[in-house]
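Fold it.
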Amino acid sequence: MIDHTQLCRFRTGLSFPQQVNLMVYILHHFKQSGLLGDCHLHGIDSTELANYCKIPLASIEIKGKKIRIYNDIDCDCGARRNKRDKSKYVIGYRLHTLTAIDAKTGHSFPLASLLAPANHHDSHFLPFLVNLAQAMGIDIKLVTADEAYHDKDGTLFKETGVIVTTPPSSKALLPEYVDGNSGTVFCNDSCTIAMHHVGFEHQIHEYKCGAESGECQHSSTCTQYRTIQMDSGLFQQIPYEIEQIKQAHDIRKNCERPFNLLKNQTGLENVRVRSQYATMARCTLGSIAVLLIKMSGTRKKEQINTSQQLPLFDQKAA
């Protein structure tokens, strides 16, 4: 039996390159298992890993900013997602995970994770996760995520070729002559025929008139063409009016499933003593454990053969 002290030293002693190499090895076998299927997309989400140090050891102010120091010097205080039974703030870390989602079954699997103090904004980790995944050989084309991971200026797409789609931001201004519910584009205020999306280049969407010949009475005076600047609302790299994008947003909730497995199935939630390096190693080993359990099939429910069941006991007959 491996002593607990030896296991702790092993986790803490794993360097980040070693963790990546170990994860690549497991992902190779996971791909060979065929569990992921041939129709999948990727999602990114985060979860809190609270530390049990509620009171800071010290609080100082440097250049007008309050700095709190905890017994785990790497963690910090950040805003928590809205949860009824928990406080607004959390002290600890935030785990950012890239997930593969089977579009046919909805099953999701954790692939790669990054750990950071809880006070860092989610958007900072989008490029790091995508670049890490590509360096590991993961083929990423489309990522579905929440608003915090939005590729605002298209930089990520230019550098990696990966498209990130998020639910339309309520803060984005709706362009003129656009249906706010469906994202359908019209040419002007008197137009009743939807325009067709023809392309996207230099952060600009191009649309042309969708009317058939002789269908529109304004065709002789209308430009039959318009452009719309990319934004964080209905007009991201792929417009919201495309039905497949709406489906990608609906399936995004499946990203939460791996976090439940990591926290409950592998015991990550119950770890009281944390440090950045040891926690990152635990997260990596936790992801590996989730994939190994999936590949082994030990968590599958056994199907009961009803034909071999004994008949129910009949009191009247007795």
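The mean pLDDT is 82.
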